[in-house]
Amino acid sequence: MLHDASHYAPIGDKVILITGFDPFGGDSLNPSWLVAQALDGQRIAGHRVVAAQLPTVFGESLHQLRALATAHRPALTICLGQAGGRSALSLERVGININDARIPDNVGAQPIDTPVVPGGPAAYFASLPLKAMLRSVQQAGVPCEVSQTAGTFVCNHVLYGLMHMLQAQGVGPAGARGGFVHVPWLPGQGTPSLALRDMVRGIHAALWAAVLHQSDIALGAGATH
């Protein structure tokens, strides 16, 4: 879902692009899109938030993300996705160059062991201040973690593709940064879950931290397994 011209930020405004996905896997809603919608139009430290929906489809999701980046030239892009089974907002550290779909995407495609970008590097790190974002979200009273895996479905596909656009292809203004955050199920979708208002509050806090911290802070948040 692309915004029309009426949603474009005024000239001189910096843009935060935030995306969510449409429902997939038999669900009737996707909390990642509901969170993005709730933040559309917010102003954060001289930036205007622009929300857009991506399809849960290999390939097409990246085509639409590129079109959004070209139209809005965001200083910061944060893509959101649903991760059923997780209990906290998950700030993704790395996207890997592989598609390995356990279930079909929304057009029935189910790539197995194919690259996101043929010939691309094995992985990209997100260019967000993850530890600063973690601290900010936790201080807002919302459970949050740094995640070491974005999976191998369309979420990882988009994270890797986003970072390839920013770092290898130079899409967007100089210094543009990006990354990915997984959100849990909503109550009623499954357990564990998190209320929509808490997700929105947490992502709002994360956006503030991402804008205000050009470099990250030192804070332990690693994993032992």
UniProtKB/TrEMBL annotation:
It is found in: Cytoplasm. InterPro entries: Peptidase_C15, Peptidase_C15-like, Peptidase_C15-like_sf, PGP-I_bact-type, PGPEP1_Cys_AS, PGPEP1_Glu_AS. Its EC number is 3.4.19.3. It catalyses: Release of an N-terminal pyroglutamyl group from a polypeptide, the second amino acid generally not being Pro. Gene3D superfamilies: Peptidase C15, pyroglutamyl peptidase I-like (3.40.630.20). The active site is at E92, C155, H182. It holds the Pfam family Peptidase_C15. Keywords: Cytoplasm, Hydrolase, Protease, Thiol protease. It comes from the Bacteria. Removes 5-oxoproline from various penultimate amino acid residues except L-proline. Belongs to the peptidase C15 family. NCBIfam families: PRK13197.1 (NF009676), pyro_pdase (TIGR00504). This is Pyrrolidone-carboxylate peptidase. The gene is pcp.
